[in-house]
Amino acid sequence: MSRKFYIETMGCQMNKSDTERLEGMFIELGYEKTDNHKDADFLIVSTCAIRQTSVDKAYSQLGVWGKRKKKNPDIKIGICGCAAELDKESLFKRMPYLDLIFGTHNIFKFPEFVKRVENGEKVCEITNIPYPEPEELKLNRANTVGAWIPIIEGCNNFCTYCVVPFTRGRERSRLPELIVKEVETAIKSGKKEITLLGQNVDSYGKDLHNPDITLANLLRKINAIEGKFRIRFVTSYPTDITDDLIEAVAQCDKVCEFFHIPMQSGNSRVLKAMNRRYDREQYFEIFKKIRNRFDEVEITSDFIAGFPGETEEEFLDTLSAIEELQIDYSNTAIYSPRPFTKAGKMTELFIPDKIKEERFKRLHEVNCKMTLLSNQKLVGKVYEVLCESQKEKKGRLMMNARTRTGKLVHFPSDKDLTGEFVNVKITKAQTWCLYAEQV
Ligand code: SAH
Ligand code: SF4
Ligand code: F3S
User: Fold this and answer.
1) How many domains does the chain have?
2) CATH number at residue 58
């Protein structure tokens, strides 16, 4: 009987992509995937460190598995991802039941790690030298309509609140040939949407020192691949979005009218303290340039409430930015001090939890208001949507689908249309979704 593995994936899409690679390598080693961690012989948690709550969640999961190991000492337990990258071998002391600790730079060394652990070794390998990607790697792709494909890893920006440069290292672009090949394989296997992924996708190619290798040109290359599918890319850094990129999105029929451009704060002083390379006015300019270039486009953002030293007036600038720009949707978060970061050391400027929470609540409310407004604009119009899954809701079979701009649409259908493009008319808007009927 083959041994079974279970990987619990936390954090962003980058971790999810890493998991597709790790699962592929596990399967090549003869392991079988299980969706129930109680059946697993080898358990791994892929961690996120963006906020302290993410780290706490990962460590409490490991604690549960550690208790199980007392009864069943043969199981193997590992940790990888961003929190592992920060805490390194100190985790062996905290969690003596761990067998394996590895970081974000050496996931392709995973088969060797597994073999060493199988031989009874305790392995901890964290390095900032990237371990090369094998030319042929079988991924165990998630069973979804779309595929997420990393194009650039790491970040050179060092925003003062953010731990990512310390967990994912410096920017490293994957070669365009590798990416195109991966897209072709995904399309051949039936994927209908490709999302190009990076902490900073607009920086794509800068480290490859060839002026022709840019995100805009990569989009054009992928757009030329045959088949009916959609292309997206996340995440964009406001001032790295070039006119050529905007034109590529406008020209390429498969590239969707969707930009995720985190602003983080609506106040120029706070943006400076965050080490973001733009002020309120520059962000507004870029945002409006994109809005004006398209008939319909979705622009989403991220905001942090309660950055150290943020005053009430400065916070109000964040709320007014969301309203003035009518930002379609924003991810919102309460500032969490992170190790190694500049802002994490500004302890005397920390905002009390109560105020942070209260600001977060108001941020959330404005965000909901704008999201609903953005959704309401679609009512009565017809859109082509890509169906993602079928679910029963109140005794009725409903499809979950998305517009090109990324909005979630539900419509009734007894037939499972997953993976198909369908035309629907929007009948009703709510904050988190739209309702429609097939036309
Ligand atoms: N590269 C992207 C963001 C990646 S991190 C960018 O530059 O915008 C994802 C989001 O997590 C960030 O946009 C930010 O809003 C949030 N975040 C990062 N560090 C945080 C912290 N210390 N506390 C709260 N939220 C944080
Ligand atoms: Fe973090 Fe800033 Fe890099 Fe985004 S650009 S990953 S927020 S350091
Ligand atoms: Fe978290 Fe690491 Fe992603 S810190 S958000 S898993 S890059």
Assistant:
1) 3
2) 3.40.50.12160
- 395 CA to centre of own chain: 33
How many whole angstroms from 211 Cα to the centroid of ligand 1? 29
State whether 298 and 398 are in the same domain: no
Task: Determine phi and psi for 396, rounding to 5 degrees.
Answer: -120, 140
In a domain, 372, yes or no: yes
Ligand 1 atom nearest the C-alpha of 261 is 8
**Pocket of ligand 2, beta carbon within 6 A:** 155, 157-159, 162, 164-165, 199-200, 237
Interaxial angle between packed helices 215-223 and 243-251, expressed in degrees from 0 to 180 and rounded to the nearest 10: 10
Please report where in the chains the tokens 């924003």 appear, as a residue.
330
| Residues 200 and 308 both lie in one domain | yes
**pLDDT for 272-330, tens place per residue?**
999 999 999 999 999 999 999 999 999 999 999 999 999 999 999 999 999 999 999 99
Nearest Cα residue to atom 2 of ligand 2:
159
How far is the centre of ligand 1, averaged over its atoms, from the C-alpha of 97 (Å)?
32
Q: Assess whether 370 and 389 both reside in one domain.
A: no
Task: Check: pTM over 0.90? Answer yes or no.
Answer: yes
- Pair (416, 344) in one structural domain: no
CA of 266 to the centre of ligand 2 (A): 17
Task: Answer yes or no: is 141 within a domain.
Answer: no
Residues 41-84 pLDDT 10s: 999 999 999 999 999 999 999 999 999 999 999 999 999 999 99
Give the distance (Å) from ligand 2 centre to CA of residue 421: 34
CA 243 to centroid of chain Cα atoms? 24
User: Beta strand pairing status for 396-402 and 382-393?
Assistant: antiparallel
Domain, as residue range, for 76 = 4-125
- Domain membership flag for residue 130: no
